Amino acid sequence: MVAAVLAGLSLLSLLTCGYLAWGSRRGGAGKAPGNPLGEEPVAGASRSQPHFIFILADDQGFRDVGYHGSEIRTPTLDKLAAEGVKLENYYVQPMCTPSRSQLITGKYQIHTGLQHSIIRPTQPNCLPLDNVTLPQKLKEVGYSTHMVGKWHLGFYRRECMPTQRGFDSFFGSLLGSGDYYTHFKCDSPGICGYDLYENDNAAWDHDNGIYSTQMYTQKVQQILASHNPRKPIFLYIAYQAVHSPLQAPGRYFEHYRSINNINRRRYAAMLACLDEAINNVTLALRKYGYYENSIIIYSSDNGGQPMAGGSNWPLRGSKGTYWEGGIRAVGFVHSPLLKNKGSVCKELVHITDWFPTLITLAEGQIDEDIQLDGYDVWETISEGRRSPRVDILHNIDPIYTKAKNGSWAAGYGIWNTAIQSAIRVNHWKLLTGNPGYSDWVPPQAFSNAGPNRWHNERISWSAGKTVWLFNITADPYERVDLSARHPEVVKQLLQRLSQFNKTAVPVRYPPKDPRSNPKLNGGVWGPWFKEDEKKKKPDKSKGANKQKKNKNKNK
What we know:
By secondary structure, this protein is of the alpha/beta class.
């Protein structure tokens, strides 16, 4: 009865205001060295263009922050969020590459061709070169741009590298994961290589066995110490933590020995180290004169993975799924420039929104032909105004069609429900196809020594189900499917999916290239594709013909 009343109210709101806002794609409208606590900062930068510090955590679960009730202590994140604006209706993508591509382009995956899975190390694939990136736009208006951490947007050719996509400097890894100490990564048996770069070259000289979270923080401190704070800087810090493999320095386990589940214990230690690192970044911002004119944005790239220690409770699902646990993220903004400090933003915000928001704050220009999917949400965050965003296309993946019972008939002739897709419009969320692992994983699931699904909450649905509808405002935990009660809403959202799909570009997901093997590149993961190889091929064929002629003469 309660669900029916809530659904009715949500339906009314959708029909009265939601569809009026629907339209086509949008145009872009470590401790600081020698830092004694309390030291006065040097003179700050000009206030006309703020410094941007974007911190992206990897695989941090929705519950895995102190202010969401976690048993893991995150005093730095809690303090920064409490003094800033907590984003409690904030969405990202369910995996690494998609979130990073949407952050850096302001576009949905369907508009870059990266709508399927992630970019694999052996694939000749990267963020398409015809996409203008956030650092490129910021450089146009005088920003110094630096990236530290995980790239994961492709590297098969030199033009795909971070320094070719708008960053003045890059220090970090190209792949999606790797050892935190040795920086080696095996994609498959025998396909292994080194993955730590400084700009366009392997950073062998910087490999001193330092844990990556601490190493990246030291690099950030060096950048801040050497840059002039009177000139604007964009610093993108994409930490490897808390992505697997689960590794952390021993001292961070001190407070978590009572956690029996080994994966959860290691995960807690990794997050504790990350929290300390962010404190050290903040201290460096203060010491070197950036803080008063800075905007710090913190975000996870996707939901947590319970089998690797992450928790999304009370949300449903996990990383890699389109349930809320895979796409609803920890996020906040901390800045002296905020007008409503110490507040909570419950307006709809998506990771694509940072592109137009930061460019507008930087006094940059967004060309009309870029056709962004993001919105400028600064007034929403800083002043508490209504968000210009009323919908989010979570994704349409035409390759992932594992829902065997999906059909056009199940989609009312509007949509093939075998296709994995998800969309949010105002209060409503629609999923089709196979959304992925759908359990609720409560905290007690981590009470045993190993992963235990005995405590997981599961829901059974009728065989062949390929459409779900939820009122996310009333039911954020996705417990009551309303698709059978509101077929008219289902049809409207299916129609919206169909409209989005007409704007999609072809999927880029090429097969692996054997030339990517690090053994062929000095033991290092790095660019292997060369344009001039095509030019050499005709010469090879000519040489082969000459050899054949000589053989014939000898005969």
